[in-house]
Amino acid sequence: AQKVTQAQTEISVVEKEDVTLDCVYETRDTTYYLFWYKQPPSGELVFLIRRNSFDEQNEISGRYSWNFQKSTSSFNFTITASQVVDSAVYFCALHSGNTPLVFGKGTRLSVIA
Amino acid sequence: KAGVTQTPRYLIKTRGQQVTLSCSPISGHRSVSWYQQTPGQGLQFLFEYFSETQRNKGNFPGRFSGRQFSNSRSEMNVSTLELGDSALYLCASSLVLAGEAQYFGPGTRLTVL
Fold this sequence. Notes:
- Chain A is an all-beta fold.
- Helix content of chain A is about 0%, strand content about 55%.
- The relative contact order of chain A is 0.34.
- By secondary structure, chain B is mostly beta strands.
- Chain B contains no helices and 11 strands.
């Protein structure tokens, strides 16, 4: 069965600090896709990144970076120089086979000015 | 390109009533998925539709039903509402291919009194 674990329920940082959100996944499929979504207070989930299981190259987009490691089944998300606007709930998700998208419980990030 | 739209945005119903929620996907997207989000259970998958056919169904009682029309628009219906059905209902659309990113609408917040 597919499973996503986000062990950090809540994180609080001071503005300009770096923060890493952890994501550990479980699947028996060799082909799968990993995602991160951001849910600001408005409620709408915003797509951030998609990664397939054959591409372990890390990715950087502005202040955001993602570290995908198949050896540890992890897909961690780092925000560099955090800003108040980064305050949101962040979800990691997994899709494989014919099963629907499976979400972790989410990590609530609070960035304090 | 317009995003996913959901109507209505807010609903207040009483126990025993029924409700219909609507979702219009991004133009060209043929797959629509529905999720229920509550503070206690997180994001739970309800249904997934493609070309008017239900591809997957989550672990919800038969009071929850849905359908997709030929223009890819989708509706979900909840009959005999219970207090526990109070939640944010999110709709997401994606392209045909498996593993593609799902793009979410703003959600419908349902309150059952």
